[in-house]
Amino acid sequence: MARHFHLDDADHAQIVEKRGAANRLGFALQLTTVRFLGTFLEDPTAVPTAVMVTMTRQLGIDPITDLIGYRDGKWRFAHAAQIRMDHGYRDFADRTAGFGLTRWLYAQCWTGTERPSALFDRATTWLLAHKVLLPGATKLERFVAKLRQRVEVRLWRVLARGISPPQQRGLEELLRVPDGARGSLLDTLRTGPAMVSGPALVRALERLNTVRSLSIAVPAAAAIAPNRIAALARFADKAKVTAVARLPALRRAATLVAFVHTLEASAQDEAVEVLDLLLHEIFGDAEKADRKARLRSLKDLDAVAMTLAQACTPLLDASLPDDELRGHVFARVPRETLAGALRELSMLVRPPDDVFYNELQTRYRRVRLFMPALLRHVQFEAAPAGAAVVAALEYLRRREATARPEDVAPSAVVPKAWQRYVYPANDAVDHRAYTFCVLDQLREALRRRDVFVTPSWRYADPRRSLLAGAEWEAARPIICRTLGYSPRPEPILAALTDELDQTYRAVAARLPSNPAVRFERIDDKDELILSTLDKVEEPASLLALRNAVAARLPRVDLPEVLLEIAGRTGFTAAFTHVSERAARVTDLGVSVCAVLLAEACNTGLEPLVRHDMQSLRRDRLSWVSQNYLRDETLTAANARLVAAQNGIPLAHAWGGGEVASADGLRFVVPVRTVHAGPNPKYFGLGRGVTYYNLVSDQFTGLHGITVPGTLRDSLVLLAVVLEQQTELQPTQIMTDTGAYSDVVFGLSACSATASVRGSPISVVPASGASIPMPITAPSTAWRGNASSSIGSPRIGTICCVP
């Protein structure tokens, strides 16, 4: 009301020129209505009562003024024309306005993948902002649909324009099912590796080579937004082959081009991921086998130790003259026995940084299964820290193609632990040991992203997304202003240093009087012990309330609950077709709820199939499952549910959404997949995943990430917090100690997201147990003012707990 229905001095100057209260009120109503709605009403007097009261109060006119004559008279049209002229409103048919809207909306369609309904809303907002009178809803809807279709046809033509006739035939061949085969080549390419083994890696590399053999590339000059290409590729990846084959020729070619273009990065990522897991398995198995071998050799090691102890005993006898010492030693232990003991000892002992090469040698055949294909199909690149690894891989690639005596193996990649095996004698290279050394360094460099591949989604160059040089200098003031920081780091660092030093002093002063915190010496280490919280007994009133609420809750089936929530919140409208078109059918919400229930209960579609209902027929449910359930639609639906819960007053009694808790759930994965990891503690002999999720204090799930195996929670905490797309913006994140790290704590304070910036990540102990927290660094490693004395020498960890 204050924004659109307030009359300023200029408005009053226009209105006062009108004769009669009805004309003045009618003019004011039309003026404010067109500001708010963007169009003139058929009945200018059909406004809410609140608007009428606001206008009459500002004009000093009787609220019961009769406007029937104004509504049916000619002055309303004259006033509308005057408002258009004086305030710059234009008709939708105006060529300048139409060109501006077309140009702006065309750019939105070319760079985005919004649905027609979203584009309709955007076009309405643009018309209001540019004072263009809104046309009829049907006319604007047709305009948006026609323009969107023009953009899609242009996109298809641009993608299909750059392929030659042989490439066109190769793309069409993807859809053909060979004789005797059960699926097409497209089905084969869409199926990623499911096992971790040498043959599986070779198949993944051959799949990558097949994609590259199609020689499909989107020209950079086309300037196509990546999300438009991804939308087309997503349809080819999810839809049935027959559905892709039935597309019009132009759209089919563009869809296959987009699919192959994006598949190269995905296939290369999956191949590198299998390589990483396979190398982890090979080196891990070698370490386990070495431990077992060490256990079996304990008796031999004891015998050798006893022999050497017997030989060394005379060395400690001060009464023996030095010139007779050798004779006494060999009298106790013959020379041949002592030499044999030393030889056996050299074979039994291991250096502290041993690389278990003796066991790795027995696994060389596993490496040879995939090494030629790896060197042939994957081209690694590197940052400066990984240049030595890439140079070593290039040497192995040249040696694989043809052994050249003048080629010298790069030595920069060989760390100290590997030198005794790579250079056993006279600087001659043991190429088998050199291969294992390079693979060992490669897996470490891949995880640090010092080595990367192109194209890739997960193993790409991390520097590619960073601004540098002139680009960074231009964006730096804006980014610093957004974060609330000064472009000069010195004042911020000084303030943080002072805050940290004061925090240390405050914590040190409170330690003697804090009974919940103490230090204990455990295994020669100082451990911080947080005492458990005392249990608070539940009062009788709470128990009675709980029983009363439980007695009033009706017993209903899960489908009824899901359908009622869908009716209340409309979350099923967030599930859109994979083609981003308005592919709507009758009772789609019922079908979506059925598929969600089947997925959540892990029962499959069969228990929900009903042939007497079109929305629950097997073919409908299968179609909905393939075309509507995706990560982005699930995220959008969850955002609607969170918003609906946030609108309930009772939820605000629980919390305002500023606090959230992050933790993980472990699940055993019964099928073969490279996306599951081992952990005997949680998964036994199998493999599993961790579902790490974020729950608000309103008891709504904000976001979740599936993590292979049991990675440390701190590695994914920020991703869970920063990527959540609901309207709640938590400012405090409660986690256990597994999700805390010093790096995460620092990044959260510097995050560009307002929901985390400047907010502490609270570390809370698990209920019912004391948590020992090791302190491995002296306080001077943390304090900004290292010269200050804060009493306790080791309180670094406790200062990180708010």
SSE topology:
Layout: H1 9-15, H2 21-37, H3 49-59, H4 68-72, H5 75-87, H6 95-111, H7 116-129, H8 137-161, H9 165-173, H10 185-190, H11 198-213, H12 226-238, H13 241-245, H14 249-296, H15 298-312, H16 325-332, H17 335-348, H18 357-360, H19 364-377, E1 380-382, H20 387-401, H21 416-422, H22 431-448, E2 451-453, H23 469-483, H24 489-510, E3 517-522, E4 525-530, H25 540-552, H26 558-569, H27 588-601, H28 618-627, H29 631-646, H30 649-654, E5 659-669, E6 677-678, H31 680-683, E7 687-696, E8 701-708, H32 717-722, E9 732-735, H33 742-749, E10 761-763, E11 771-774
Parallel strand pairs: 5-9, 9-10
Antiparallel strand pairs: 1-2, 3-4, 4-11, 5-7, 6-7, 7-8
Keywords:
11 strands, 6-stranded mixed beta sheet, single chain, alpha+beta, disordered C terminus, 3-stranded antiparallel beta sheet, 802 residues, 7% strand, 33 helices
Please tell me about this protein's structure:
- The chain has 802 residues and is an alpha+beta fold.
- 53% of the residues lie in helices and 7% in strands.
- The protein has 33 helices and eleven strands.
- Strands 5, 6, 7, 8, 9 and 10 form a six-stranded mixed β-sheet that branches. The protein has a three-stranded antiparallel β-sheet with strand order 3-4-11, with no helix packed on it.
- α20 crosses α22 (431-448).
- The longest helix is centred in the middle third of the chain and has 48 residues, at 249-296.
- 23% of the residues are buried.
Tally the helices: 33
On the 0-100 scale, what is the average pLDDT?
83
Strand count, sense and barrel status of the largest sheet are: 6 strands, mixed
What class do helices, strands and sheet pairing give?
alpha+beta
In what range is the share of β-strand residues? 5-15%
Rg (CA only): 36 Å
Shape: globular
Helical residue percent band: 40-55%
Low-confidence stretches: 752-783, 792-802
Assembly of the depicted chains: single chain
Distance between the termini: 44 Å
| Extended strand count | 11
